[in-house]
Inverse folding.
């Protein structure tokens, strides 16, 4: 039986799954979210809920953040009523938040100045991975702090990859990860739309590319929705990649590194979003290209 | 014991493996290649060699083409001393050649007019797949002819995908396949070079992305060579993707279909090739980006 207490902040699609897995493993999980329905869902699943960050922090050894961006993470830690007001010395903050590397580095620095340990540990694997506990964590921070948190990460994730000792390096690896995810997904849309334009059977195309050297995790996962043209049961929305590839090109620009494929993929997601698909499943990036696909080619 | 006779034309890196697999399975394989050393290698492996296309065609039930492009395929069939001069009626030509779809359609049409069956059946899987018999075949042609050839395809490939009844459709699926392969490989180069620019440990980055939603067959296979910066033992050269992505953008243009990711990836391969890496391993597409990577970013 685990006797550690975890303040779990952010009970969205992914966080709620991870919070429940920790509670089921015996941790004392004190969940908090601004949205009442998210708190209720955790309560219904047998978790303990808090009505404020301060209440979630009562007796907490760890604060685990699963909010949607760096701005929210900063507010939860340093804003009015935030973690900073109720944290005990030596607190470990595990941030599973996707944010720009410089923001993660800055938060890590401010936490260190306050005597807390900050682990920059974004995850990959989506809601399905959170549900099944098969996330990949890319962690950067004090090695002793990461070692101390291994049992917690092992409860929510399948793989813990230590990518550096400095907060910001986890976010940078996540940025590289999202470059690949975004380009692969847009490429799947480009390939499927071109196949449609050429009059091919999309199911047959998927059957070929999914098992050949053309395969990708993204094509495997999103391809069937492209074949079925089913974009209305989103597991992740088009605008999530508008955000994530936006971070990629911003980081690349700051590094003075040209990333032409990432920049091009972002245009595809922007085009799909701007055409009215912002909240549809991200496989709808194909619709950016599909605008060119329905008619027969010129003779 | 198979008693069928196969005229096997084209004994390059991939063809030689497939020819040997067919011979080992009991087929009478009569191999031909313009290059003397390719013939010698087949002879050393116990295969039968021919000194001309006509000699390879003697008594042949099938002609299997594994030459490097459509122009060679056309010459082998319809050029001086070609298959057309010695083919018996009802001959089945199995083309495993990667070529533009309109060229495959045209060859299929001319063969049909001569009373031969032509299967447009390019493959994916590379030299390694040919060696292990794990190729994927994407076949288009007369269904009865394809069924008749199933045992032959099963000897050289793991998967036979029938993608249509008309020659040209196999080439079109292969074109879509190469769009994905080329974009994924260039994206791997972009991601790894950006990671290098950001000062990350490339092995750790590969460990993360290879097992996450960012994974691709290409990153899995070529990524280790990017981590090691080892481009001098090519399994496939940079210029092969200059050719293959060249076909992709030409086909897209003819379809009046914009393929911005494929067009962008082609520029990356062109940049790497033009900088002196044309014959190096195709993972050297990373060197296009690496030109921007070595220096430290501005503060």
């Amino acid at each position: 039986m685990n006797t550690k207490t975890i303040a779990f902040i952010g009970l969205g699609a992914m966080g709620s799954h991870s919070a429940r897995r920790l509670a089921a493993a015996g941790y004392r999980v004190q969940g908090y979210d601004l949205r009442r329905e998210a708190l209720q869902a955790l309560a219904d699943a047998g978790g303990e809920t808090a009505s404020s960050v301060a209440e979630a922090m009562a007796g907490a050894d760890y604060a685990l953040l699963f909010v949607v961006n760096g701005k929210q993470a900063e507010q939860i830690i340093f804003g009015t009523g935030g973690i900073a007001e109720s944290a005990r010395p030596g607190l470990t903050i595990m941030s599973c938040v996707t944010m720009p590397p410089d923001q993660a580095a800055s938060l890590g620095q401010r936490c260190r100045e306050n005597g807390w340990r900050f682990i920059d540990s974004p995850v990959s694997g989506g809601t399905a991975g959170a549900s099944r506990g098969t996330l990949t964590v890319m962690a950067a921070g004090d090695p002793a702090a990461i070692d101390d948190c291994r049992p917690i990460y092992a409860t929510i994730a399948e793989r813990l990859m230590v990518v550096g000792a400095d907060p910001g390096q986890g976010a940078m690896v996540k940025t590289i990860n999202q470059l690949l995810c975004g380009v692969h997904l847009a490429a799947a849309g480009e390939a499927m739309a071109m196949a449609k334009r050429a009059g091919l059977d999309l199911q047959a195309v998927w059957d070929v590319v999914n098992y050949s050297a053309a395969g990708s995790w993204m094509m495997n996962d999103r391809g069937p929705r492209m074949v079925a043209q089913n974009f209305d049961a989103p597991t992740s929305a088009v605008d999530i990649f508008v955000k994530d590839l936006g971070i990629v090109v911003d980081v690349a620009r700051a590094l003075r590194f040209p990333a032409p494929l990432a920049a091009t993929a972002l245009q595809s997601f922007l085009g799909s979003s701007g055409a009215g698909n912002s909240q549809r499943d991200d496989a709808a990036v194909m619709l950016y290209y599909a605008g060119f696909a329905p008619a027969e080619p010129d003779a």
Q: What stands out?
A: The domain at 5-165 of chain A is CATH 3.40.50.720 (Rossmann fold). The radius of gyration of chain A is 21 Å. The beta strands of chain A are 5-9, 28-32, 48-49, 62-65, 92-95, 117-120, 123-124, 135-140, 157-164.
